[in-house]
Amino acid sequence: MSVNLQVSNLTVTYGAIAAVRGVSFSAAAGEIVTIVGANGAGKTTVLNALCGLRTIGGGAIVLDGEDITALPPHERVRRGISQVPEGRRLFGRMTVAENLEIGGYTRSDRAEKRHDLDHVLELFPRLKERYRQLAGTLSGGEQQMVAMGRALMARPRFLLLDEPTMGLAPQIVDLVLESIKRVNREGVTILLVEQNAYRALEIADRAFVLESGEISLTGPGDVLLNHPQVRSAYLGFDG
Amino acid sequence: ETVGPVTDDLGVVEIPKGQPILIGGYSSQSGGDTNQGIDELRGAEIAIGDAGGSVLGFPVKLIGEDAQCTAEGGQTAASKLAGNRQIVVVVGPSCSSGARVGAPILWNVGISSIAFGATSPALTAPDRPDGFKGFLRSVPNDLKSGQFTAAYVYDKLGLKTAATIHDGSPYTEQLVQAFAKDFTAKGGKIVAAEAISPSDTDLRPVLTRIAQSKPEAIFSPVFVSSIGFLLRQKQEVPDLKNTLIIGGEGTFSANTIEAAGPSIVGFRIVGPSTDLFSSQFPKFVEKFRSEYGEAPIGGFSAYGYDATLLALDAIKAVGKTDADGNLYIGRKALHDALMASKGVSGLTGTLTCDANGDCGAATYAIWEFVSDDPSSFSPGTNPKRIYP
Amino acid sequence: MTFAAVTSSYRLERRRGGALAEALRIGLFGGLAAIAFALVGAYTIMDGRPVIEGVLTLAQTVLVTIGLATGAFGARAAGAAPAATRLAHGAAAGLLAGILLAALVLLVSSVNLRATLVAASPALVRALSFGLGLASTRALACLAVGGAMLGLAGSVLTVLPPVARRAVVAGLAAAVAAGLFRDVFASILDNVPGLRGLESAIFGFSGVNPAAAVVLCLAAAALSVGRSALRGRALSERSIALRKRIGLALMIVAILALPLVTNAFVAQVAMLVALYILMGMGLNIELGLAGLVDLGFVAFFAVGAYTVALLSSNTPFAIAHVSFWIALPIAVALAAVAGLLFGLPVLRVRGDYLAMATLGLGEIVRVLVLSDALAPVLGGSQGIIEIARPRIGGLVLNTPADLYYLALAIAAIVGLVSWRLQHSRIGRAWLAVREDEDVAQALGIDLVAMKLLAYTVGAAFAGAAGAVFAVLIGSVFPHSFQLLVSINVLAILVIGGLGSLPGVVVGAIALIGLPELLREFGEFRYLFYGLALVAMMHLKAEGLWPAHAKETSHV
Amino acid sequence: MSDVLAHPSRGPASETLLDVQGLGKSFGGLAAVRRVDLSVARGSVHAIIGPNGAGKTTVFNCITAFVKPSAGIIRLDGARIDGLPAHRVAAHGVARTYQNVRLFESMTAIENVLVGEHRRLKSSFLGVVLRTPGHRAEEAEARERARAMLDFVGIPHRAGTLARNMPYGDQRRLEIARALVGQPKLLMLDEPAAGMNPAEGHALVGLIERIRSDLGVTVILIEHHMRVVMAIADRITVFDQGAVLAEGRPTEIQADERVITAYLGRRATAAEVEAVEHLSEEASIAEAGAA
Amino acid sequence: MTAAAETKAPGPLSEWLRRSTWVDHILLAIRIVVALVVLVGLVGSIAADTYSAESWISFIVFGLTIGSVYALIALGYTMVYGILRMINFAHGDVMMVGSFAGLFAANALAGAGVTSALPLLALPLILAAGMAAGALVSIGIERVAYRPFLHVRSLAPLICAIGLTFILEYSARGLFGTRNRAYPGFGWMEGSVVVFGITLQIVQIIAFAAAIVMLAGLLAVVRLTPLGKAMRAVAEDRDAAALVGIDVARVIVATFAIGGAMAGVAGVLYALVFKQITVFMGFFLGVKGFAAAILGGIGNLGGAMLGGLVLGLAEALGPALLLEGFHIPAPYQLKDVIGYGMLVLVLIFRPQGLLGERLSTKRA
Ligand SMILES: Nc1ncnc2c1ncn2[C@@H]1O[C@H](COP(=O)(O)OP(=O)(O)OP(=O)(O)O)[C@@H](O)[C@H]1O
Ligand SMILES: Nc1ncnc2c1ncn2[C@@H]1O[C@H](COP(=O)(O)OP(=O)(O)OP(=O)(O)O)[C@@H](O)[C@H]1O
Ligand SMILES: [Mg+2]
Ligand SMILES: [Mg+2]
């Protein structure tokens, strides 16, 4: 079960503005790759382009040797790409249970799904308490858990996470990061966008810095963690 | 104004040799009254066809405009026709509201108009404003039909109580009022005066209400769809099983039979009465069907035919050609000729115009449907004339 | 249809087959369009109406347009393929369309379909056989080959350089427009002294003369080439501004002079357009700014009209006999009160619920006005007639042209008021309410007050329109206040561009003016109106003149 | 600049600006908030922290009349504001931002701020229609103030940008500007630092500091970024399961065993150590900032 | 304010007065006025004693019959609306198309002798024809009025749907002519049965039963099938739905097809009950169906059913029940006033309709 994602020369524009310009990177199977960048650098845009929510202006996306650039989003899900989107995007008028269940929409293996569901509820026990509540009425943090769970239910091979710890209490942040690592250990390749750059870089195998839509730095996670430029601009350590 | 051999106070239309004589037409071609308007203009087309498509050796062309059934529609369509100086005469419109604003606009530029559907008595009242001087109509006005119906129900049938139903259109409302007025004057009693809307499909509640007052007859000059629902649903209201329903001439068509199905049998309508009507009408319907793929929907196509007949006759009477073969028609002369129309045998009877522009045959009869087979429609046999 | 409509961030695109398959698909659609055109009966009727005298009838014009469009789209589907391929694809598409139409003719001539399809008549076969013998092989071949030729011609358009393409299209459009709008142009020529002779030179009895058509075509093409040449040159900012100003001045002159140089019909249409502009500006306050969907808008129009009728009619229904100038403000005030009364019950109703609630209220008003119950007061279905016309001194505003100026003056005032409101705290508060009620309220905006104000102001504008309408017609009938009016006003707003004042004007011209001028289509007018609605939305979904994209700087 | 934005009614009338007593809110069977008492001192920055779903946002919603509390009394400056419709609560001087940014998306930044000024502007309908001099002057003033406010929160260059096209961080600032420009007594920020990286969070701390000191506005903020909270809060209230778990000065709170258990989590010991270390690191930064 | 005053619980009235605004007062006044009018009307009508008990029962039966037609239309409306937030203004005309397709099928079947040979088989075939035609037209509407505007925030779909209303009506007029078409009956359907002393037409029972069957069927689809789940997901957030692997385009087409098929069924059943159809019948029935859907709470299937029946009952019973007491002439002319008036009143007090969920306000 090896996944290899190859992005070359990705360009995305909004009207006249190029939000992402010529971005190329790759992720090998089993890696955690982190994208760091300021507000508006284009991180979300890159993720959306990867899962097909943005029509791209140029470039190619190749998954396991197959060019998926022109595929619609749902086809990409079937090929193992899953996203925890920015702002969670839950189905607010469905219950937590239904949200999780629909996460496995593309799958037909009932027993396996059942197993994965238990897994998710074990990961986030809070969701068990809120199991029949409408997702739209959950607190911010609870919603984030559902979003994670929903993406996991698709049993992705390649998981895109857009600020998964946003709005989470510190104790849950740990939990989420821990679960990301765990999911990764199970063989899922991870592309992580995170404002909490410190924690993100800690767990990253490789990382790159996005600045105004272009990659400005790239390297192993721990190297970037100690890179002076990163430390001053994204970690808040002056000097 | 003098053009060629013709001098006329209101102006002269010059038609070069080989060009068509233009007759304007305006009627309801969209909205709820589409059927009526289209029927009428098609009737007009057939009249032109029957004249061989030409008068005095000149081809005749009908320019139809949509006036809907509203005042503003009539106004717009009439202004459009009035703007075309080649138009000799106009037939239409379908509705009194449109005629009220449209006719003066046309007369203002010297064009006479002959309505085929606007039945409001005010339009041909002796004290009508000058703007209406150019207005004539081939359809009789509401008062006459009201009088006739009242006389039939009260005097002939000896019924003392009646109910009325109109559909909120000025036409049916006026008919119902005219009937009620005469019926009460004779000593009868209107026990229920109800109204529906043309878009209603379920009339059983209204009928149930009417049934409470046990009228001996119901007069309802509504149009084909509504009469279809009314007749069919009457069967489901036990107290009305034997009540006589009398409709208006708007339903004088084969389509009424189709709409009402088996319940049509015994349905009586007030319609024009002459023998001519009976002999010519089936041929007209046949022509209509072969031309347009369906028979007339309501009863007004014949008035469209007759209005056009009057127009063509008048043109024939006043048109003058010069040496080059160009045709000249004086507008005032044409108007005078129209007003002087006399004894024209039209589809609905013998047409004679009175001083106020009423040219309708004005003799009525009661017709009764005797069979529910739409193809049996043929005035005389089905419906059968039962009075006088 | 709320503003909170769910939208996707990406387009759902159809996967396309090969270019030729695509071309044939377009050919299929072209053929079906032509068949539909014939089978609804439009062909036979429009065949009697010459556009270019003796050369082209209206029906043929539509058919030719379908053919050209089929070819052009068929060729375009081939993308950047070599010109020969594109021409071939265009011709193939056209040929397919032609064959389909020929098949229809064959079918209609051999099987009697009239029990189901009333227009499948011998007349149709006659018309589509072009005098080459009823459904003869020659006639059928002519249809098929004609389709291919037209398709080819259409595809030629796509391979031409843009300048040439624009010129050809402009030329053809000019010739057809001249024939189509003959009456309007003829009346202008007729009204301008010295041009009368020109009228008979250019126009025949119902269309344009062939020679004149050729001249017009060439002239328009030349003009188009000239414009293209001009466009190519870089213009200084000042000259652009100057041109804009000249354009604006010309437009104002044209608007003011319109009824003077044309006839009563054009004035009448212009008048209706002005009325709908008034109503459009009213609904723009409610819907465009405050986001309150209102499908009962016609009720305010009715209140205005009936108020004037009751105050200045010459019938027993009148409760007073005052001049229009006194009745007008009263009508506006009463309409405003009606707006307030409408607004109150539906304050907490949102989105589509609001649409239905207002539709219901509008229908209630119409039914009441029509009803026998209120007939003693409002005239019922017989309406109220003999409404006195406005006078200025001794001058009676009687003709549509006079009333057009009246409506125009009122529209100008209303436009100014709208503009000022829109660019004030009130307008901003409306926009805020439209965007997010909760947040607006949390910022201290009194939702109730702002919504009621929107209803009141919008209704007042509609009331003014109704007042003018009453004197224009000289009578009021309940049948003038149908749901369709509300729908039309709504469509004007959307087609023009929600929240945009010039949009209202453009929208009204497009939706009220054009159909009136398209009366030639007779009983098919509404069919073409529907097609135009769909087409316009497809061309510009955000409206013909959208509210300013206010963005001035980015990043 | 600050004179345009200056707050007219400064100076304490009483110590307590916001006083919440016995606030309760339940959704169906779920008691999201139970008998919460909260009092916020004038001129302070008061932080609310607590696990996800503890009811923090719900308290905000109750105060701003976004939802109707099931029980309790809320006073602002001594006046009862519970039960009033939202716009009247705003009129008493309460403004807020939202956990998920809620801007008027198809309006530009400056228009968003101008809407925030609505309450301050007094032009009447007639004034607007007739374009009276008073109205024109007010309008010009309002624009100037709006620009100054955009400047104050650090996004003057975005004035003409449509709100929906702005990056997230700028949207958050714009939301603060929109809330502030109406001259509230109390500004309520719901997770203002969410989605910001630590460096940006730092800048936010400076902004809040200036809101308090330059504009004299009392601030309540909900936040999960401890770094921000510790750096700026005068007092902290900790919520857990809809009730107040603890309240005190930051140093008291970070030492509170219950808070550490409920909020920072007790899982692997290593993680706990790390978390506490993290916390003290934040605190030292906060102290450095305060000095 | 002293502590003592505080602790004393304020009376509910004074508390209400403190919280309420003038709008609340006016709404209260409206409530009282309506209650009074209804009361006076009721008392007056009952005092007038115009109608017998049988008549009242008939009114109820009539109301339920037309109500089930409204409900059938409303179901399709609500279905499409619930998923796509689009008022498909052309829905009524889809119904008209379905009705005509059913008519042609019926004529063909009668011509082929199927109707007389197998009368029970004919009905499903005719319904199938109506459904197929409705679904096809509806898919066309999706293509023209919906798909191109998926990514824009505009009222364009509404305007296109209005345009399509004209196109469908006037095309049908040109194609089929304007005449009223009689719908063929089937022998077994013509009669009536007597239940508890009430005479019921068999077609009325069929219409009512069909509405319930369709409701159940739709509920089953939406609640139980994967397609239904996907529909609800698409309804909420299209992007998110795509992210969990749902083919959004397919779901939308399926929704339109189902909605169109519902309209087709409604068209055929309408025609069976009322026996004649015309090309212009769709518009007003469509508006009524829309009203019923809103009344019940749009997007809610059970609500559509309830809304249709309530609206039908209001129209049939309202004039007799309320207006009779005021001695208003031609009360049935005002049935729309009652129907729409009731709609507005319901919305005043339940802005989300009878069974609708409160329009989800975004969470703060
Ligand atoms: N729909 C849109 N229309 C126009 N511009 C947009 C749109 N969405 C994003 N942008 C712009 O594109 C750029 C990149 O945005 P993006 O959301 O990808 O940033 P990001 O790195 O995810 O930021 P954040 O950390 O705030 O989430 C920004 O400048 C933003 O303003
Ligand atoms: N409208 C609602 N209906 C039902 N339950 C709700 C509603 N709003 C909030 N809740 C519940 O109330 C509880 C408190 O929610 P609240 O949003 O106040 O939490 P919070 O403290 O702000 O959490 P977070 O830090 O995650 O934002 C949660 O369990 C949530 O699910
Ligand atoms: Mg982002
Ligand atoms: Mg929260």
Automatic annotation (TrEMBL), chain A:
Mind telling me which InterPro entries this protein's record contains? Answer: AAA+_ATPase (IPR003593), ABC_branched_ATPase_LivF/BraG (IPR030660), ABC_transporter-like_ATP-bd (IPR003439), ABC_transporter-like_CS (IPR017871), BCAA_Transport_ATP-bd_LivF (IPR052156), P-loop_NTPase (IPR027417)
Gene Ontology annotations of biological process type: L-amino acid transport
In terms of Pfam families, this protein maps to: ABC_tran
Per the record, the coiled-coil ranges are: none
Superkingdom of origin organism = Bacteria
Q: Which residues form the ABC transporter domain?
A: 5-237
- Keywords for the protein's UniProt record, in alphabetical order: Amino-acid transport, ATP-binding, Nucleotide-binding, Transport
Respond yes or no to whether keyword Transport is given for this record: yes
Residues annotated as transmembrane: none
GO molecular function term, any single one: branched-chain amino acid transmembrane transporter activity
Protein family (similarity comment): Belongs to the ABC transporter superfamily.
Which protein is depicted? ABC transporter ATP-binding protein
Source organism of the structure: Segnochrobactrum spirostomi
From TrEMBL, chain C:
Carries keyword RNA-binding? no
Q: Which InterPro entries does this entry report, sorted A to Z?
A: ABC_transp_permease (IPR001851), LivM-like (IPR043428)
Q: Where in the cell is it found?
A: Cell membrane
Q: Which domain of life is it from?
A: Bacteria
In the UniProt record, which is one GO cellular component term?
Answer: plasma membrane
Q: Which GO terms describe its molecular function?
A: branched-chain amino acid transmembrane transporter activity
Keywords on record: Cell membrane, Membrane, Transmembrane, Transmembrane helix
Membrane-crossing residues?
23-45, 51-75, 87-108, 138-160, 167-189, 201-225, 246-277, 289-312, 324-347, 403-421, 452-477, 489-514, 526-545
Q: Which PANTHER family match?
A: HIGH-AFFINITY BRANCHED-CHAIN AMINO ACID TRANSPORT PROTEIN BRAE (PTHR30482:SF10), HIGH-AFFINITY BRANCHED-CHAIN AMINO ACID TRANSPORT SYSTEM PERMEASE (PTHR30482)
UniProt name for this protein: Branched-chain amino acid ABC transporter permease
Q: Which organism is it from?
A: Segnochrobactrum spirostomi
Automatic annotation (TrEMBL), chain D:
The alphabetized UniProt keywords are: ATP-binding, Nucleotide-binding, Transport
Biological processes per GO annotation: D-alanine transmembrane transport; L-alanine transport; L-isoleucine import across plasma membrane; L-valine import across plasma membrane
* UniProt KW NADP keyword: no
Q: Where are the transmembrane segments?
A: none
Q: Which SUPFAM superfamilies match?
A: P-loop containing nucleoside triphosphate hydrolases (SSF52540)
What are the record's GO terms for cellular component?
plasma membrane
Pfam families for this protein: ABC_tran, BCA_ABC_TP_C
ABC transporter domain location: 18-266
Work out whether the entry's keyword set contains Transit peptide: no
GO terms assigned for molecular function? ATP binding; ATP hydrolysis activity; L-isoleucine transmembrane transporter activity; L-phenylalanine transmembrane transporter activity; L-valine transmembrane transporter activity
Q: What is this protein called?
A: ABC transporter ATP-binding protein
Automatic annotation (TrEMBL), chain E:
The answer on whether this UniProt entry bears the keyword Ion transport reads: no
**Which biological process annotations from GO are given for this protein?**
D-alanine transmembrane transport; L-alanine transport; L-isoleucine import across plasma membrane
Does Transmembrane show up as a keyword for this record? yes
Q: Which Pfam families does the record match to this protein?
A: BPD_transp_2
The cellular location(s) given in this protein's UniProt record come to:
Cell membrane
A molecular function (GO) term: L-phenylalanine transmembrane transporter activity
The organism sits in which domain of life? Bacteria
Q: Give TM regions.
A: 26-47, 59-82, 94-114, 120-141, 153-172, 192-219, 240-262, 294-317, 337-355
One of the record's GO cellular component terms: plasma membrane
What is the membrane topology here?
Answer: Multi-pass membrane protein
Swiss-Prot/TrEMBL keywords: Amino-acid transport, Cell inner membrane, Cell membrane, Membrane, Transmembrane, Transmembrane helix, Transport
Would you tell me the protein name for this molecule?
A: Branched-chain amino acid ABC transporter permease
Name the species this protein comes from: Segnochrobactrum spirostomi
